[in-house]
Write a structure and sequence with these properties.
The chain contains three helices and no strands. The chain is mainly alpha-helical. It folds into three domains: about 40 residues, no CATH class; about 55 residues; about 40 residues, no CATH class. It is rod-shaped, with a radius of gyration of 38 Å. The chain starts with about 20 loop residues before the first helix and ends in a 10-residue tail after the last helix.
């Protein structure tokens, strides 16, 4: 015994000359799977590939083309977002390096209370204006916000 096929057209069992209907296919499907001890496969109401009309095929192609455009657009958006994120991370790293360099140059003189860079003779007290601005904007020595 061979398993029935899903070919449209003549009777699946070649027992008659009429065209098989969905009901006929369902009955054969149930009988076959019952004999094999399996659950029958549910048939669908959609037409087979050979039964598609030109309009239905055009609609399928249009839906596929739309899905491709949406997928490509999403891929472009994701790539742009990734590039923007990488650029932002690079700018943040450069800013952190700049702040570290500024802090390294504006150090408190260990012998007196003034900035070693800004004051030649101790006339600018610690913190200097540069360090005060960094501290005001939450730039701690570790580079993290307050």
């Amino acid at each position: 015994m061979t398993q029935p096929t899903d070919q449209p057209g003549a009777c699946l069992l070649d027992a008659c000359t009429r065209q098989c209907t969905t009901e006929c296919r369902d009955a054969i499907n149930r009988a076959w799977h019952s004999l094999c001890g399996q659950q029958p496969v549910q048939s669908t109401d959609r037409p087979g590939i050979d039964q598609l009309t030109s309009d239905q095929l055009d609609q399928l192609y249009a839906e596929r083309d739309h899905a491709v455009r949406v997928a490509r657009s999403a891929a472009r958006d994701a790539a742009k977002a990734l590039n923007d994120q990488l650029a932002a991370e690079e700018r943040a790293e450069r800013a952190e390096a700049t702040l570290t360099a500024i802090r390294a140059r504006h150090e408190r003189n260990p012998e007196a209370d003034y900035c070693a860079l800004c004051s030649n003779h101790g006339d600018i007290t610690w913190p200097c204006a540069t360090m005060a601005v960094l501290d005001q904007h939450g730039q701690t020595r570790s580079g993290e916000g307050r």
